[in-house]
Amino acid sequence: MLNRYPLWKYLMVIAVITISFLYAAPNLFGEDPALQVSGTRGSQVTASELAKTQATLQAAGIDIKSAALEDDQLLVRFRNTDDQLKGKELVAAELGDNYISALNLAPATPAWLEALGAGPLKLGLDLRGGVHFLMEVDMDEAINRVQEQRIQDFRTDLREQRLRYSGVLSKDEGTLAVFRDAKTRDQALSFLQGRYPDLVFAERDSGDNFGVFAQMSEQRLKEVKEYALQQNITIIRNRVNELGVAEPLVQRQGAERIVVQLPGIQDTARAKEILGATATLEFRLVDEKADTAAANAGRVPPNSELLKDRNGRPVVLHKRVILTGEHIVDASSSMDEFSRPQVNISLDAPGGSRMADFTKDNVGRPMATVFTEYKTGDKINEDGSRQFNKHQEVINIATIQSRLGRSFRITGIDSMAEAQNLSLLLRAGALIAPIQIVEERTIGPSLGKQNIENGMMAMVFGMIAVVVFMAIYYRKFGLVANAALLANLVIIIGVMSMVPGATMTLPGIAGIVLTIGMSVDANVLIFERIREEIRDGRSIQQAIHVGYDKALGTIADSNITTLITAIILFAIGTGPIKGFAVTLIIGILASMFTAIVGTRALVNLLWGGKRLSKLSI
To answer: Which residues form the SecD export protein N-terminal TM domain (predicted)?
Structure first.
């Protein structure tokens, strides 16, 4: 019989719409103004801080919705933004500097929907509000680090080749190795040229000193800068993800800058705390021959450096760095056999080889673990940028008992919370070069709310116009098309809420509005084909059957070409363009399903298999 669907097709349509509605439903409940409290430098948020927060807010007469510990953070939900702002000031004053209070927006999704894994749409910065940073990578520091490492490599290589040198130092943005005779200089030049093909070498003699000067080629210099930028982008993204910021945007801008957007966070101090955690480790030998008292008075040996441990005691270390944090691939916290906190370190293959080669020749000597942090300071450079403050402290000194490999541990950490914090930062990676914030701005939730309201208004007016036109022009079949239009919108919202990483932006709303207009195109083609078949004298059932079948090819062609364009936009676009492309892709697929399968199911259910003399179309 014509125009009858098997039961499974009806069940499929019902299942798709039901599941889409369930996952779109959380968007009906909105979000609560919230305060998110987290610890800094090893401080943990416990039930004690929860009780203090509740007591402080209650004493101030602030009525809160709820307060609970979630993922080692305290989340307080307020009834309005005024209470949220007032509560932040009170809680920050009560808990002190060891805790950071950040304004946020928390989904008000019912528990039964959360149990199904449903959540509201992830909104972009332009809709939800949040903080935006433009960060610049200190390329000079990146190049300096490569140069410092090259000096160490030159010294090691020349010693292994038994080529005696009087000094290897940094000079004129390059590396100069000085020898006492021309023969040794020539041998070293020949060896180093073969060893380092990415460097440009030249002879540089001065009096009785014979030198080999090495400088990075333009191609190598470009590679160093590109690596520093890409590695910092990856590490910043890892840091943000590790510390629990939802839906961040981290992408490059130009040759030396990175854009970071953190939707939902209104407190720039909290964002800077996340991004400013540029911790790394260095492993160095302790200078046992140095006089600590003399070094503390300013007389430090030329190849050594004076640092302090966590108790403020001076420690003299060799400047040569055995290994840096960039070779760390994993870090975890645990307790040692004496129930003391420790951090377990795993290195990559080159790092493991370097550590093994060094420690096998230095068994019995003390090795220090140096914790290094870069933070943007208050002093301004001539170019307007802020200077970096480099903070270093020795967190551990241990005697090398045996040859170390790719896995080892560091101790001397004050608390388990600090061990967890340190392992988190090391696991997320060490920044190749310091970064500084050259631009920051906060987009308030009120502006995002206005954008949403304007977008919703455009969507509603667009839908009303389409619904009224279809109902008047196509009558009952127009109502079928309108039902498909509503189902299409539910599917788009549901799928966007389900897909990990999909973020709704203002251009995304524009994509939905465009999809509303496009989604009835397929129905128009089908309905006009049915009208044409009826005019040609076919029966009602035959006209419906032929109309759907013959319109299918045209619908597929027109939608597939648009889909290809949307996929290209998504592949090569960035930011807002991707947001528009995502909604357009989902909208096209949803409209094809609702027009070809959904409306056909409804038409078959209402008119299929019946003897009809006329059709309301």
So the answer is: 2-103
